[in-house]
Amino acid sequence: MSESQELRKKLIEAKKLILDGFVEQGIDLLSKIITPENIKDSNWIICNVIDTASCDAVVNILNSLGKIFDISACANIKRIVYCYAITNKMSEYIDLALDTIVKLNKKDSLDKLYNDLKNENIKPEFLLKIGIAYRKLGAIRESNDVLRKACENGLKEACEKIKEVASKVM
């Protein structure tokens, strides 16, 4: 078996462990097999896990091994924000994911993310981040709607952001 096939086999084994609920064992296996030399050939595994694993598993994996992967290459990057919001945990990966959505000009992804989260009981800080991402995309109305919800949930910084836009418009 070639080195490439062996790597792929072990990555799939780690993914299976993660999906079967053995997250720590999957993380441990990934940390042993992924090296600076094979990271480019291994990056697909993180995107695959983000798409298919439970939110708790996604958060655990990113917190443990996220720095070695290029998550901006993942198609379903909004799920990173969703998973952190659902588990009520803050992380630099939220900002990275939202920045990627903005860079790719994916307002539709942001719309879907917000729609998926708006009936969930999440911290208003997540709403603030989504509102700022909308603003960066030039979607002022959506930004203000999300910021207003964060403001109503007690986040003063969101209230200030709304006032900031209002004063610029007038």
From TrEMBL:
Pfam families given in the database record: DUF1955 (PF09205)
Gene3D superfamilies the UniProt entry points to: 1.25.40.350
Q: Which InterPro entries match?
A: DUF1955 (IPR015288), ST1625 (IPR036321)
At the top level of its lineage, which domain of life is listed? Archaea
What protein name is recorded for this chain?
DUF1955 domain-containing protein
UniProt source species: Sulfolobus tengchongensis
